[in-house]
């Protein structure tokens, strides 16, 4: 069944590989924004939004490794999600001239 698969080392390996790929690709995109930081008022919000991918990937992987601590990992993810929503709204205001 699905629950049995989640508890296998193969599922953990797949989750780890996907987490690494997500962090590497997001990290590269974040690095490019930081390297060419020409519009700070826009790029600050963009970088915060881009950080949602590694946050979700890492804390979801941690939830898979330590399911009894999952509520704490979800709390951290939800807090960062609120920061990202705020940053997205700020970015929209900047783009619209507000």
Topology summary:
Layout: H1 2-6, H2 9-35, H3 40-50, H4 52-65, H5 70-96
Helix pairs in contact: 2-3, 2-4, 3-5, 4-5
Describe this structure in words.
The chain is an all-alpha fold and 98 residues long. It contains five helices and no strands. It has helices at 2-6, 9-35, 40-50, 52-65, 70-96.
Low-confidence stretches: none
Radius of gyration: 16 Å
Largest sheet: none
Distance between the termini: 52 Å
Task: For the structure shown, list the relevant keywords.
98 residues; mainly alpha
At a glance:
This protein is mostly helical and 98 residues long. Helices cover 86% and strands 0% of the residues.
